Fold this sequence. Notes:
The structure holds two protein chains of two kinds.
Chain A: H1 25-34, H2 52-64
Chain B: E1 5-14, E2 33-37, E3 40-48, H1 49-52, H2 54-60, H3 64-82, E4 86-89, E5 95-96, H4 99-108, H5 110-120, E6 123-132, H6 148-182, E7 186-189, H7 195-198, E8 204-213, H8 217-230, E9 234-242
Antiparallel strand pairs in B: 1-3, 1-4, 1-5, 2-3, 6-8, 6-9, 7-8
Amino acid sequence: MNTTVVGVNRPEAVPRWQTEQPIALVDLLDRVLAGGVVIAGDVTLSIAGIDLVQVSLRALITSLGGESDPLRPR
Amino acid sequence: MTEHTGLWLYAVADDLPPGPVTCPAGIDDAPVEAVVHDGMAAIVSPVDLDRFGEEALARRLEDLDWLAETARRHHTVIDAVHHLGTTIPMRLATVYSARDRVTRLLIDQRELLRRAVDTVSGHTEWGVKAYATAPSPPAVAAGTAESGASYLRRRRDELAGRDAVRQEVFDAAQRVFHELGRLSAARRRHRPQDASLSGRGEPMLLNASFLVDDTEQDTFTKAMATLTADHPQLELQLSGPWPPYSFAGLAVEP
């Protein structure tokens, strides 16, 4: 193991405005479900192939009572 | 690790300080640790495979309360690690059966992970959403007697005007996307959030992420302020800084 430590490469000057607000769940789901690197875990091989955004929308619709359907064609 | 314990993978990080990872607890309050190989650290925490196996996960992903809690925990860990070194977030629900499988990932995917690190190192992700501000209602004199033909003509003009306004705000949102894109190393559109999810009446015109060089942060936020002032017909919302969720995958996707 040859861990090299170059230190933190994020300057403190990065503006922090609006970060005081709690993160909206929809914004978070946009990123954790449609972003990130997709590598299949050996336990969750097939989940890597699922469109998790569709899954989360189904969960959101159910929670909203199912009257409006975000998946409808526009 | 027992037979029924797996490892939830949050992220792979480069250049972490040596020693234990300083980080809040992970999913199910489990302690977070790093599996390190050749300078790359896989950030993991143990999970019960009876509840985090493939079948159980596929089912629970449809449960909003569970999804919300899991997504927040996943993000909390990634965000903490993101402040320690260059971080490649993994998509939710990447689970391994054993530690040596995680090490194997670091070995087998080294090239790909290295490319992702090169893409996002020294950059920050910002989110920008745009909505139309409520248009002012057309001025119609109240109580004015109006002929049928005049009504039809006015109605037709009104509808045409509304279409033109809609097109105009849509074009303005695209200009914002291109202007901010010019100041960014990379940009990406997310699908617009549905009105029922965003909690807003007006449709979302833009839902985008920008990967901004850390030396260009000031320029970027100043441009946001200028674009906001120049486009009164738009409401712009900035979110972030985010770990590079929307861009770490770019180096990987075909």
